[in-house]
Write a structure and sequence with these properties.
Layout (H helix, E strand, L loop, with lengths): L133 E3 L5 E3 L39 E7 L3 E3 L3 E4 L4 E3 L13 E3 L2 E3 L4 E14 L5 E9 L6 E9 L6 E14 L6 E9 L2 E3 L9 E8 L2
Length: about 325
């Protein structure tokens, strides 16, 4: 049996309270050893029940198993060079510098406006394979480009700016609005002679017919006539030609006037073009001819019209025919007004 020494207080021989213990000390239940009474190094004993140990007094390395539930508020300073493989929820504002060469396969919400260099691979632009014969369609797919040859056009209208050079030899029967093309041409003639008094005017108000012999060809709708007044089928710039053939009686003065009168208000007529001719006083009579022309800007078919007048000095008659043009008018539309 081991010997036991029970005392309430120990005192060194020099009267101080410092005791040197060369072996172990066991504290009785309920008794404590003041920290101020301890100096030197603790022996290799369990510290399982130690509490309130200041971290600043630790040296060496804390084992991984001893670290758990470590909050950010407990960390200051710089982290050592350790793996961050298991770090999560790191605020972007806390990241500075340049990212290392790592996979960005799981990155989301990347803003394309932040791309400052490099080239986006064509495979990232759309589905399919990019090449010089395809284009990226609006649905995000690479599609074969259509033909750029005009021979492959099946619909739409080719802009005038795309046309140049000389048109090939092709059928233009369906072409419209061709500048400079004639769309109207017509001829009428007098079919019955008109007797002329001496120095008296005569309006040619009757016996007009559209030419209908010898292969005559009318272009467009043609004129209309009522009591010697001619009306136009459409507005435009028209060329009017009046040809007169006549006979003067046996007088000392043998003289003819041929005049085209026009109106722009369907009421008042003015002399627009006049031709004069005269013949030599010889024999029982003289045949004379006169011709005059006028370019008429017809801006309203209801108000713009024309008619013809003949004057003879010495008397005579105006020649006519239903089989050839002796006294006639020709009207050709030159273009739009």
């Amino acid at each position: 049996m081991a010997a036991k020494l029970k005392v309430d207080e120990l005192e060194s021989v020099d009267g101080s309270t410092n005791l040197i213990l060369n072996n172990s000390v066991t504290m009785a239940s309920g008794k404590t050893l003041p920290a101020a009474s301890l100096t030197g190094n603790l022996p290799a004993i369990s510290a399982a029940n130690l509490t309130a140990i200041p971290a600043g007094n630790l040296t060496g390395t804390v084992a991984d198993a001893r670290i758990s539930a470590l909050t950010a508020s407990k960390l200051t300073g710089a982290l050592p060079a350790i793996s961050a493989a298991n770090l999560t929820a790191i605020p972007a504002a806390n990241i500075t510098g340049t990212l290392p060469a790592i996979s960005g396969v799981n990155l989301t919400a990347l803003n394309a406006t932040n791309l400052g260099s490099g080239t986006v691979p064509t495979a990232r632009l759309g589905s399919g394979t990019a090449s010089n014969s395809v284009f990226l369609r609006g649905d995000g797919s690479w599609q074969t480009a259509g033909s750029t040859s005009a021979s492959d056009l099946t619909s739409g209208t080719l802009p005038m700016a795309r046309l140049s050079g000389t048109l090939p030899a092709l059928n233009g029967s369906a072409l419209t609005d061709i500048p400079g093309g004639l769309s109207e041409a017509d001829q009428w003639r007098l079919t019955s002679n008109v007797t002329l008094g001496n120095d008296l005017v005569s309006w040619l108000t009757a016996n007009w017919e559209r030419v209908d012999t010898d292969g005559f060809g009318k272009l467009g709708t043609g004129l209309t006539e009522s009591s010697g007044v001619f009306s136009f089928p459409s507005t435009g710039v028209w060329l009017i030609t009046f040809n007169v053939n006549g006979h003067c009686f046996n007088t000392n003065t043998r003289y003819y006037n041929a005049t085209v009168y026009t109106t722009t208000d369907n009421s008042t007529y003015d002399s627009a073009s006049l031709a004069q001719t005269n013949g030599y006083n010889s024999g029982s009579g003289t045949y004379l001819s006169a011709s005059c022309t006028f370019i008429f800007d017809v801006t309203n078919v209801s108000t713009h019209k024309f008619k013809m007048q003949v004057l003879s000095i010495g008397g005579g008659f105006v020649q006519s025919s239903s089989t050839s043009n002796r006294t006639s008018i020709t009207a050709i539309k030159l273009g739009d007004t």
